[in-house]
Amino acid sequence: MKCKTLLVLYLILFSSNLLISSNDDSSKKINKTNIKEHYTKFNINNISTFIYNNGNADINPYGNSGFVYPNGSSLAAVFESGLVWGGKVNEKILVGGSTYSQGLYGGKILENGKAQDPNDESVRVYRVRPDFKTGNLENEILDENKTEEEIRNQYALDWNEWPAKDGAPFKDIDNDGNYNPEIDIPGVPGASQTLWYVANDLDSNRAKELYGSSTMGIEMQVTVWGYKNYEVVKNMLFKKYILINKSKNTIKDMYVSQWSDPDVGDAGDDFVGCDTSLSLGYAYNGDLFDGVYGSDVPAVGFNFLQGPIVESNSSDSAKFNGKILRGYKNLPMTSFSFFIGSDPLYMDPNLANYTLGTLNYYRLMLGLVGTTGEPFIDPTTNKKTVFTLSGDPYTGQGWIDGIIHPPGDRRMLLNSGPFLMEPGDTQEVIVAEIAAGGTIGINSRESVRLLKLYDYLSKDFYDNDFYQISDFNAAHPTLYKSELDKEIILSWYENTNIKELETINYTNFKFQGYTVYQFPSDRFKKSEAKEIFVFDIKDGVAKIISPIEQIHNESDLFEIVKDGTDSGLKRHVSIKKDYLNSEKPLNNGSKYYYGISAYLNNNDHNLVYYPKILESDISTIAAIPQEPKPGESFPNNYGDKIFFYQNDENNFQFKVSVVEPKKIVAGNYKFELIASSNWNNINWNLYFNDNLVQQNLRISIADNQNKYLPFYFNGLEIFPSIFDTTDVDPSKLNYEFTFKSSGALYNDRVIAEKQIKEINVFPNPYYCTQNSEIHQFEKFVTISHLPQKAKIRIFNLAGHLIRTINKDDESQFVRWDLTNESYFWIASGVYLIYIEMPDLKETKILKLAVIMEDVVPDFF
Question: How far apart are CA 71 and CA 143, in angstroms?
Answer without folding.
Answer: 8
